[in-house]
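Issue 218. Parser rejects a valid record. Input:
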Amino acid sequence: MATVEMNVSSFSKPVQLLWERMSPCVLCPRRCRVDRTKGKKGICEIGETPKVSSIFPHFGEERVLVGDGGSGTIFFAGCNLRCIFCQNYDVSHLGLGHEMSVEDLGDAMLELERQGCCNINLVTPTHVAAAAAAAIEHARNRGLRLPVVYNTGGYDSMATLELLEGFVDIYMPDMKYSEGGVSTELSDAVDYPEVNRAAVREMHRQVGELKTQGGVAVSGLLVRHLVMPNRVAGSFQIIDFLATEISKKTAINIMDQYRPCYKAGSVDKINRRPFPEEIEEVRNYAVEKGLRVIR
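Output the parser choked on:
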């Protein structure tokens, strides 16, 4: 079990403040206000100790994250979004994984570095931000030098993000939807668009545009947007936001991986894969607006 509960005072002030945000829990915009330090669970279904489903060098991420050694991914179980089309629902919704202490998480980061990975890629870390920051601090105190990627669904609290400044080198948020009715229906998050845009602004403030060395990302913002059928996601509005309110140099991956998983088959407008022309029109629009489109 995690020892950080007993020794939180030995960590930096930002880690301590992040840990306090779990009692009652306001780590994410859900603000469930359950005391996770006492074993209570909110919508993410994770208590104080993070659960991890897998840790390995990942070669299927964006090219700028993979390099020669792969992206050192740590997949966290649980999620603060309830996406009905989730491709990893067994991990995100059902919590498939095993508990890991902060120290073990930090040691896993060091092992990924020893294996030659290009970065530490924290997948779905929003609901375990306190433990993630503590693990990063533990690993850096023991020599970790790799950049840290915060690979998030994009439903992140401003107050939590502010405390993460300095822990994260590369923010990689999803921008899923531009309209609250859609985000309510598909992810049970009516305020997703405004929360997401505020989070992306803060991420960009902290790390700026994506920077690479030798073709591999070392810092900055990389946005992911999943194209959905029937223009459900509001892709053009998201691209307009990035081009006009963040930066025309913003790096974005227009993703074509959508397929109707989990409960999506029962919803007519998303029960098929996007047509190639639906994906291409979004990519073309992003290029037209001057964004840096990567894959």
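Fixed in the parser; the record now loads. The longest helix spans residues 192-207.
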